[in-house]
Amino acid sequence: MVLKISVIGAGNGGVTAAADLTVKGHEVTLHQSANSSNDLSRIEETGIINFNGKPVRIHKFTKDVGDAVRGNDVIMLTIPATAVEPIAEKLAPCLEDGQYILINSASAMSSLRFKRVLNNMKRDVDVKIGETMSLTYASRYHQATNEAVLISYNEHNLFSAFPSRFTEEMLEVLSRMYDHLKPAKNIIETTLNNGNPESHPGPSILNAGRIDYAGEDFYLYKEGITEHTVNVIHKIDEERKRMCEALEFEAASKSERSVRSGYFEEADSLQEQYNRSPVLKDIAGPANLENRYVTEDVSNGLVLWASIGDEIGVETPVMDAVITLTGALLRKDYFREGVTLSKLGIENADAGRLNSLMEYDHTR
Ligand SMILES: NC(=O)C1=CN([C@@H]2O[C@H](COP(=O)(O)OP(=O)(O)OC[C@H]3O[C@@H](n4cnc5c(N)ncnc54)[C@H](OP(=O)(O)O)[C@@H]3O)[C@@H](O)[C@H]2O)C=CC1
Ligand SMILES: O=C(CO)[C@H](O)[C@H](O)COP(=O)(O)O
């Protein structure tokens, strides 16, 4: 069945998704915000995206958010986790009963956060909201050539609705868009399976000098993950896995999860898997430290993970060290600025209570 899909967030993921879902037969509207930093004039003028070498004409391109959302079945957000609240505020007045909101990005309890915005705005609309653990694609959009490059699909992408009792219903609809979505127990499980907080910030800050010096010539996956920096990823993965165990989620390692996603090949070490990944090795960057690999993945990644650890009694010394050092490098207090369970209204919850809070809508 053809779905009418709005894509909100016209960056790498959004433009790629607009083309990919059009090729899959859906009716796709791509929305670009008024304050976008991207030049999408060629899509605006022609409706065409060059998608892995072939021109694809999308249904509609619009800068009007109401026009983007009206009458559509699925509203898909391809945005950084840092933007969930402002985007929810913008979308709230336009949403319609029966719509499905898919936050297709780096999971950070974003569906609950979206719901809290609707509640705060007293916007009583019957929408279902859910999130993937990570963006469906590794992808880049090149403005100069109007080219969306879908490098790879994430072939094992966990998904959960908030509240989780709607996961099955949402998956029935969303599986028409993506056949790689797998049910998670809840949005804490998707959040703890977002790969970026362990891949990106530790190795990036350990390469801060090199990044400051090399700028555009730095490649995190190929050169920044070395025999020593990879040990920080191992330590963070151990802390993350202990949280998964306490919450009774599957506690697969980074290596196992990325092989399953199709991003890594089998190899002798995690370092080799990163350095040789056919999906990741040629991705450039970060070219500076004010990049989502550091800012988003600390403020909405490690800080949230560490706060989950605090709540359920799992210690996270290496996550805490990376958060502290990132704050020192960027002159910020990420423990204060970042997303925490307490800021989401969750306190004094052990693992069992945390899981049960995700089953029903406790935010009202
Ligand atoms: N690209 C990839 O390969 C991967 C991405 N991800 C995750 O998916 C998210 C989206 O990725 P990607 O599409 O590459 O990101 P981009 O930065 O290319 O695009 C994100 C889009 O989100 C919108 N946006 C809204 N508010 C903000 C804000 N405050 N700061 C920046 N952008 C904002 C913008 O849309 P507009 O232009 O309309 O204003 C922007 O173009 C990432 O943040 C990342 O966590 C995860 C794994 C892989
Ligand atoms: O962000 C990315 C590229 O910019 C990667 O695609 C992402 O890190 C891979 O995801 P995962 O770690 O979940 O396999």
Automatic annotation (TrEMBL):
What keywords were assigned to this record? Oxidoreductase
**Could you tell me which residue ranges the Glycerol-3-phosphate dehydrogenase NAD-dependent N-terminal domain spans?**
4-103
Reactions catalysed, as given in the entry: 6-phospho-D-gluconate + NADP(+) = D-ribulose 5-phosphate + CO2 + NADPH
Q: Name one GO molecular function term.
A: NAD binding
Q: Does the keyword Oxidoreductase apply?
A: yes
Which InterPro entries does the entry mention?
6-PGluconate_DH-like_C_sf (IPR008927), 6PGD_dom2 (IPR013328), G3P_DH_NAD-dep_N (IPR011128), NAD(P)-bd_dom_sf (IPR036291), Opine/Lysopine_DH (IPR051729), Opine_DH (IPR003421)
* Highest taxon in the source lineage: Bacteria
Q: What's the Enzyme Commission number for this chain?
A: 1.1.1.44
Going by the record, the broad EC class of this enzyme is oxidoreductase
- Record keyword Oxidoreductase present: yes
Which terms does the UniProt entry file under GO BP? glycerol-3-phosphate catabolic process
Please report the stretch or stretches of sequence annotated as the Opine dehydrogenase domain: 184-329
Q: Name one Pfam family in it.
A: NAD_Gly3P_dh_N
Name the chain's protein.
Answer: 6-phosphogluconate dehydrogenase, decarboxylating
Species for this entry: Salinicoccus halodurans
